[in-house]
Amino acid sequence: MADKQLVQEAIADSWREITQFRLMVLYTAWLCDQSSTAGARREIAACKVQAAKLMVDVLHRAIHVHGALGVSNETPLAALWARAPQMGIMDGPTEVHQITVARQDAARVPGLRGRVPAVLAPAADRGPPGPATGMSWTRSRRVPSRSHWGPRCGPTARGEQAW
Predict the structure, then answer these.
(1) d(CA 131, CA 126)
(2) Rounded to whole angstroms, how far apart are CA atoms 23 and 47?
(3) DSSP per residue over 62-108, as a string?
(4) How far apart are CA 137 and CA 9, in angstroms?
(5) 52 assigned to some structural domain
(6) Is residue 101 part of a domain?
(7) Which of 32, 64, 87, 140 could form an SS bridge with 129, CB 3.0 to 4.6 Å?
(8) pLDDT digits over 79-125, tens only?
């Protein structure tokens, strides 16, 4: 099978994307070591988005290369494909991470500094949360209200204070 040109293209594309993702994860880990996870927030969110997308893309190619065998019980591809949507919601919906990437990126652009909403500006520029700034404590931390969290999810499950 690997002698076929179309299969070689799928293998090369998958290898390239996996290598890019691996380097992105290594860079993000390096950023976390240099400063903190808060300093690498954009990169962490981008890795979470890319992990789900990469899994779907590579599995899609592998299933197409294997044909009907790819969706049978003879290979692990069908089981992995069934679990692929979980990757997009495992640590929060992919869309939330994409919003984080966009907001963090927009906050770093000097021309957009004055036009970025208050919740996106650095904490030093916004002042303390509360009625004076028009934001509640949960809004400034971008944490949904408690009604959105399940019994084992949310800030308290991670050891943070909820209020």
Answers:
(1) 12
(2) 10
(3) HHHHHGGGGGSTTSTHHHHHHHHHHHTTBTB-HHHHHHHHHHHHHHH
(4) 51
(5) yes
(6) no
(7) 140
(8) 999 999 888 888 888 899 999 899 888 888 877 655 555 454 444 44
